[in-house]
Amino acid sequence: MRFNLRHIVPFALLSLMGCGAETPVDQEQQPVVAEELGQTQSMLRVSLNPSCLGGTEGTRFLSDFEREQVTGDIAHYSIRLQVGPNAARDVVTLHRVVKEKFPWVPKKSRESLFMVHGDAWDFRGAFMTSTLTKTVAADHSIAVYLAERGVDVWGIDLRWTQVPLETQDFSFMKGWNLGTHAQDVGVGMTVARAVRALTGSGTDKMNLLGWSRGAVVSYAYMNAETQLPQSLRNVSGFIPVDMVMKFGPEAEQQRQWACTRAAVGEMILQGGRYEGNLSGNGAGVLIMQVGMAAGAWPNAVAQVPGIELPPQTTYGQLGVAVGAATHTFLSNAAAGIQPVVPGYHFAAGSFDPNNSLTGLQYVGSQQFFDFLSAAHPYQSFTEVVESEQLQCGVKDLPYDDHLSKVKVPVLYVGAAGGFGTYGEYVVKNLLGSKDVTIHQVQRLPDAYRAADYGHADLFLASDAEKTVWAPIYEWMKKH
Question: Does residue 446 share a domain with residue 328?
Answer without folding.
Answer: no
